[in-house]
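User: For a benchmark we're assembling, each entry needs the component sequences followed by a predicted structure for the full assembly. Here are entry 17's components. Please fill in the structure.
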Amino acid sequence: MPSPIETLTEYFSEFPGIGPRAARRFVYHLLSKDAEYAGALADAIRELKKSILQCRLCFRFFQNGASQKLCDICSDEHTDQSTLLVVEKDADFENIRKAESYSGFYFILGGAIPILEKEPAKKIRARELFDRVQERAKGGALKEVILAVGATMEGENTVLYISKILEPLAQKYNLKISSLGRGLSTGAELEYSDRETFTNALKNRS
Amino acid sequence: MPSPIETLTEYFSEFPGIGPRAARRFVYHLLSKDAEYAGALADAIRELKKSILQCRLCFRFFQNGASQKLCDICSDEHTDQSTLLVVEKDADFENIRKAESYSGFYFILGGAIPILEKEPAKKIRARELFDRVQERAKGGALKEVILAVGATMEGENTVLYISKILEPLAQKYNLKISSLGRGLSTGAELEYSDRETFTNALKNRS
Amino acid sequence: MPSPIETLTEYFSEFPGIGPRAARRFVYHLLSKDAEYAGALADAIRELKKSILQCRLCFRFFQNGASQKLCDICSDEHTDQSTLLVVEKDADFENIRKAESYSGFYFILGGAIPILEKEPAKKIRARELFDRVQERAKGGALKEVILAVGATMEGENTVLYISKILEPLAQKYNLKISSLGRGLSTGAELEYSDRETFTNALKNRS
Amino acid sequence: MPSPIETLTEYFSEFPGIGPRAARRFVYHLLSKDAEYAGALADAIRELKKSILQCRLCFRFFQNGASQKLCDICSDEHTDQSTLLVVEKDADFENIRKAESYSGFYFILGGAIPILEKEPAKKIRARELFDRVQERAKGGALKEVILAVGATMEGENTVLYISKILEPLAQKYNLKISSLGRGLSTGAELEYSDRETFTNALKNRS
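Assistant: Structure for entry 17:
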C-alpha cells in the first residue's frame, strides 16, 4: 500500500503546472500544519463540489445562492440579449469579465480542438452550443455569436470547426459569427512581431 | 592611459544589450583570433560607414550600388504612391518588409518619444517627416500615412505627437492618418490577455 | 460569506510557490473533476495527518507502520551511532538520503535563523536539538554533530547560533561540531564563481 | 558581393553568445553613429592586437608596457614561486585574481578537453604546460600545481588528462598535483543539491 505521502503527492502532481517535486513540497506544507488546518482544507474541497453548480445554459461554474439552476449572468434580465461570447474555459471568462467591455451572454466550450483531432465533437460542448444558439436565435433576440478563443493554432482550428457547425443557424436566423480582432497586443514591438500579426495589424488599421 | 582591452571593452559595452562582462568576452574573442582577422573586422567596420548611405527621403540605410542618393524603394517607380508607412527604426522596417504585406513608401523616424519628454522634436525626425509628407501630398499622390509603431506607452505617445504635427497637412490635403490595429497577436491566449488587448480585440472583431 | 471558490483559492495560495492565479487554476482543476475525485482528495488530506507521525527523536515525518513512535532510522539499530546530521527541513533530508553517502542519525531543525532575528530560539528546534545531542553524547556513542544547512546567509547564521548552543556539550563530551565543506558545486564554472566560493575551493583543494 | 551590412553581421555573429538578430542590431548601432566613431572603434580593434601581447610563460594576454615579453605576474619577483595555478582561459584568470586569495604563478590552458575527444593534446597547451612545470620544478622552487578548472564533465576530463601528463614530473620532483575543493558553492541549498555535491561537501566537512 502506498504511503499517504505518496498518494497525496500523486494527486498534487495532477494539478496544472505542478511536477512531482512541487507536489511533494505541498505535502510537506500540509504536514507542517496541524490536523485542524488539514481538516478545514479537506472540508473546503468537499464543499466546493457541493455548493458550486454548473450553469445549465452557459456551463460556467457558479455558487448556488438561491437554489437556482442558472448563473447570475444567464438569469439576469439586464444581460444584453443580442450577443453570445464563446470562450474555452472558466479562466478565460474570468479574465474577460474583468475587462468590463462586454455585456452579453457567455458560453464555456470546455476546451479547444487540437490540430488533426479525429473526434472534435468530443473535445468541446459542440452539441450544447448549437442548441443554445438555436434556442436564443429562434426567439429573434440573438444577433451575433463572438468566438473568443486564443490566437493559437488550436484556437483557429476551433473557430473553423464551430463556424461550420453554426453555419446553418447563421443562415437560417441571419446571425453574424465573428471572431476577435487580430493585431498588436499591448506591449507588442514591431521588431519582434511575426508576419501574421503585422499583416493583421495593417489590415485592421484605423 | 587606459589599456586597449579597457578601451575596447567600453566600446562593446555600448552595443545594444551588452553589459561589461559580455563586452569583455568579446575582447577575449578578438584576442584569440590572429591579427589578420582583427584587421579584416576593422576594415569591415570602416567599410560599413563608407558604402552604406542613408536615403535622403526615407532615412533608411542602404548600400550605394550606383552612386544614387535614394534607396531601392524610394527610387522604384512601382512603389505604391498612395501610402507612407512610418516606423521607428531600421530593424522594424526589415521585419515589416519580410511580412510582404505592404507595398508603399516608408519613413524611418529614428526613435520614439518617451512619456513626459520635454523636447519631443529632438527625439525623432519630426521636421523631416512633415516635409516628406507635404511634398508627397502636394502632388496629390499620397492618401494615407500609416503610423506603425509599437503598442507601448512610448509608441502611443509617439502616435499622439506625430498625429498632432501632421494634422494641418491631413486637413489641407485630405490625408488619412492611421495607426496599426490592436487585438490578439499571434499566440495570444485569453486567460492572460490584458484588459486593453481584449477590449481592442472585441472592438475589432470581424 | 466568501464563496467556496474564494476560500479554496486562498488555501492554495498558501501552498509554497503558488500565487493567486495558479491557486485559481487549481480550483478550476478540481471543479472539472467529479465529486468522487474531490472526495478522494479530501480523504487523502485527512488521512495524511492521521497516519503520518513526527518522530519524537529526529522530528522527521514518517508513516506509522507498527504503532511505533520512532521513525525507521531512529529505531534502526544498524544506524551509525557516532554522527548526527542536522538539516533544516524534511525536503533536505529526503534529498540527502538519496545521495546514500551518510549512514548516521538525523535531526530536523524545522527552519533556519534569518539575519538579525531577535528570537532565534523560536525559529528552530534549538532546545530539542540540545537535549537530543546531550542524550546521545552522555552514553558516549555520539562523536560528531554535522550541521548540514545551505551555504546562504541564513544558513551561516544558523550554523553560528547552533554552534554556540552546542559549545558546552562539545566541550563536556569532546564532540566535534562540523559543517559541510565549501567549494565548487557540480557544474560550477570559474568564470562565474564568486570570490568566496573560489577562496573556499582553493583552501579545500586536494 | 555581400553587402557590408551582411559581412559585418556575420563577424558579429561569431562573437560569443551572439545570434544573427543581435549581430544585426550591432550593425545598426554602428550605422547610427558617425564615421568618426566607427573609425575609432576600428582603430581600437587594430590597436588591441598590436599592443596586447601574450606572455610566453603563462600565455595570458597583457599590455606591453615596457617592451617586455613577460606579464606582470611572471616578471614579478614577489610572486610566490611554490605554486602554479592552471586555468582554462583568461576570463577565469581575471575572476580568480579578483578573489585575491592566491599569490603564485598562473598558466592559461587555452581550453578544456571534451569527453571522448580524440586529440586532447590539440585542445589545450599540454606541451607548453609540461615544459613550464618542468622548468620551474627543476630549480626546486615549484611545489604544487593547482588545476583550477570548472566542476563540469569537461573540467574533470581535463583534470584527468593533465594529471596523467604531469605524473612523471610529479614523481621526479616530488610535486603535488591538486585540484579545487568540491562542496557547497555560495548560495547552494541542500534541497536542490545533487548527489555528488552533497557527498563531496560531507567528505570535506570541517
